[in-house]
Amino acid sequence: MSPTVFKEHGYRFFFFSREEERMHVHILSGNGEAKFWLEPEIELAKNYHYSRKQLREIESLIEVHYNEIIGAWKKHFSC
Predict the structure, then answer these.
(1) SS (H, E, C) the chain
(2) pTM for this entry
(3) Which one of 12, 22, 36, 59 has the minimum C-beta count within 10 Å?
(4) Alpha-carbon dihedral sign for residues 44, 50, 55, 56
(5) Rounded CA separation 24/64 (Å)
(6) For residue range 15-57, what is the model confidence (pLDDT) as tens digits?
């Protein structure tokens, strides 16, 4: 199961169930895929085919939706 937190600008932000305990979010679009750590700060963990410009845009979207992502993580994983 991989619940979607939100979609914006063609990117899907989601979690994989039963993965690592460290808080993070996955991003997927037709152009690539990435994973960002959310703690202790927002940081790129993995990148497959996104440009630096796209990664900056994705990180900006994570910052804008940070509280929503954290809330969805806690709800989904019952923290």
Answers:
(1) CCCEEEEECCEEEECCCCCCCCCEEEEEECCEEEEEECCCCCEEEEEECCCHHHHHHHHHHHHHCHHHHHHHHHHHHCC
(2) 0.93
(3) 22
(4) positive
(5) 15
(6) 987 778 899 999 999 999 999 999 999 999 999 999 999 999 9
